[in-house]
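Incident log entry.

Two folding requests arrived from the same account within the same minute. Monitoring flagged them as a possible duplicate submission, but the sequences differ. Recording both here for audit purposes.

Request one:
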Amino acid sequence: MNELVRVSALRQDALLGLTRDLASIESPSGDVVALQRCAATLVAALEDAGGRVTRPQPDSLAAPHIVAAWDGGGPPVLVLGHFDTVYPLGQLDRQPVEVRDGRLYGPGVYDMKAGLAIAVNAIAVVQAMVPSPSRPRITLLATSDEETGSASSRALIESMARESAAVLVLEPALAGGAIKTARKGVAEFEIDVHGVPAHAGVAPASGASAIHALAEIVSRLHGFADPARGLTINVGVISGGTRPNVVAEHARALVDVRIGKLEDGPLVEHAFAALRAGDARIKVTVTGGVNRPPMERTAGVARLFELASVVAAEHGWMLEEGATGGGSDGNFTAALGVPTLDGLGAVGDGAHAAHEHVIIKDLAVRAALLAGLLGRLGDNGWGS
C-alpha cells in the first residue's frame, strides 16, 4: 500500500474527531462570538500540526480569519477554506452531529468543516513524511465570511493568491468525489422601479404602474439569458404595490445571474445598467454587479488537475473532474490567473440542507490525495 495512504488511514480517527469537533461548534456567518469559538478549536489543531498561526484582523470585535504557515523548500502553495456556515445558532438542536450508516451528519460538516480537517491532517502527513527541501511552502487561509460573499476576506484571499504558485480549495467534492475545475461566476442585482400612483378604477391612465414596468423588464431579461453559453438569469424575489385598486407606485426585484466566461461580466453589468421603462414617467434604479468572477478551466487549472490525477492513479483511484454553477473563493484566485483546483474537500451530500453529511471512509482517502498533491507541488519545477 502506498505510504501516504497508509499513514493517512492511521490518522482516520483524528481526522474524524476534528471534523466532529468543528461541526459541533456552531459558526454562522456574522456571529463574531460563535466564529471566535470555532476559530479557537481550528487554531489549536493547526498549531498541533506545526503551523505558525496568525490573525489578520487586529480588531478583536471583527469576525476572525486564520492564517497558518509551514516552511518548505518548494514553491508557495495556498490551501483555502472557510469555517462559517449558513445555519443559525440552535441548528444543532434540530440537526445534531451524529454517525449513522457510515456517514457523519451535522450542520456544516460537508460545507466545509470536514474539508478543513482533511487539510490539517494532510499537511501533518506531508510535514512528517516529506523532507523539507521537497515540501512546498504551505499557507492555509481559513476565512469566516465565504457564505455571505467574502466581503472582508476577498482582498486577503487575492493578495495571498498572487504570491502563490497554486491554490487548493477545500470545498466539497462533486458527486462521487470529482474535482471542480470550473465554476460559474455570480452576479446579483436589485432593480427598483418607481412609478406614479393612481386610483385603478377612477383614473388608471393618470398613473404609471411600477409593477407593469417591472414585468416588462423581467421579460426582457429572460431574452438576454444564454444558457448554452453558461449565462443564466433568475429573478428570485419580486415585491411591490399596496392594494389591488391602486396603480403601483413601487416594485422591486432581486436577480441572480450566473456567468461562465470572464468577458461576460462587463456585458451583464452594462445590460442591467441600461434597463429602462417604456413609460418616461417611471424611474428604474439598478444596483449590484458581479461579486464572484467565473473560475474557468484554463491551461493552468488543467495542468494542476492532471497532477492530481497522477497522484490518485498512484494510489489506485481514478480521479474525475467537473463543473458547477455555484461559486467559491476559488473563483477569485482563478480569475487572477493562478492555477486553482477546487472540490478537494469531503465526499458527501446535503450542503445547506437537513441531511448534510460526509462519507467517513472517504475522509482518509481525500487527505491522502491532498497530501500527495502537496508533495508533488513541492517539486521546484512547478510554476516555473
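Request two (distinct sequence, not a duplicate):
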Amino acid sequence: MPDFSYIARDASGAKVTGTISAGSQREVLSILTGKSLFPIEVAAEKPAARLPLSGRVSGQMVATTYAQLAALIRNGVPLLKSIAVLRDQTSSKALKRVMQDIYERVEDGAALAEAMARHPKVFAETAVSMARAGGEGGFLEDALDRVSQFTEQQEDLKARTAGALAYPIFLAVVGTCVVTALLIFFVPNFEEMFARLRERGELPALTEALLWFSATVSSPAGLLIFLGILAGLFFGYLQMQTENGRWVRDTVLLRIPGLGHIVKRLAVARFCRVLGTLLGNGVPILRSLEISSGSTGNRVLSAAIEEASENISAGESLAAPLWSCGHFPSDVVEMISVAEEANTLDTVLIDIADGLEKRTTRRLDLAVRLLEPIMLLVLAVIVLLVVIALLLPVLKMSSTI
C-alpha cells in the first residue's frame, strides 16, 4: 500500500504534516477529515528503497524481537535506546542491518511503523499496521506483545505442518528414486533373457509393459519426456505467480476432497486471528478487514472478505456477507453475528481462530498419519509388480523345461 505525505491544518489553524498509508488520495482525504484536519496538500511518496539483506530472518526471530522490544519499552527504556539494544545483541547479520536502518529512521524523526514498512520481507503488513495503531494510540508495547504472540502461533502452526509432511515427502522421494533405479539399471538386464519368449509371443503382458516402460525411461526419449515434465512444472510455477494462476490454484485447492476442507479452515482461522488482533489494538474495522483479507493466503476467500468490507462500509453487518459467500462455516458466522451484537468481536474472533486451528490441526495430523502407510503400501505394490513381472517369464521358462 503506497504512502502519502500530507500538509493540513487542524481546528485551531496550526499546520500539521505527516505520512499516511492508504489505497488512494481519496482515502487519505477521508482519513484526514475523520481526524478533524483540513487537507492543504496530499502527494504520493516515492517507494522507499529496500535494503539488501545478507540472509533470511526467521519468523521466530522476528517474534522474539517484537516481545523484547515490548518488554524494553514497558520498563521505561526509550524507543531509540530499545532499538539500539536489540540491534547490538542480535546474532543475525540480516536482522542487525534491518534494526540499524530502523534506528536511523527513528532517530531522524520517523515513526516506528514507517521504519518497519521499509522491510516488508521481515515485518508483515499486519505487524506494521498494529505498530502504527499502537504508536498513535499510546499502547505500542501492548501492540508489539500481541503481534509477537500472533507471529509465534503462526510459526508454530507452520512448523507442525512442515514436520507432519516431512516423512511422507521423504517416502515419496525415496520411492521415486528406488523405482527409477530399478527401471534404468536392473530391469534392462532381463531383456535378452526374455527375447525368445517375446519372439514366440509367450511373454506375459505385464512383463512386456515393464520392459517397454524401462526402455522408454532409459532411452533419449525418456530424457526428453523428463525434461518436458520439468519444463511443464516450471511453466506452471510461472503461471502460479500471475493473478489468474493464483486464482485457479486457490479455487482448485478449495475443491480437493479432504484437503480443501483443511485449507479452508486454516485460512479462515488466519483471517479471524489477524482481524481480531487488529481490532483489539484499535485499528478501524474497514482497515482491519483490508489487511486481514490478504492474510488468508487464498484469493477466493480474500475476494469474499473484500466484498464483505464493502457491505460494512454501506452499513451492513459482517456476518451476513460472510455467510452469503459460502466459504465460511455456519458456526463461525453465527459466533461472529452474536459477537457483533455484544460488541465483543475482537475477543470472539481470537477464540474462533484458536478453536479452528486446534480442530484442523488434529484433522491434519490424522490425515498425515494415514498418508504414511498409504505411501508405504503404494511403494510396496509398485516394487511387487516389478518383481512379479520379472518372475512370471522365469516361471514360464521353468515349466517349459
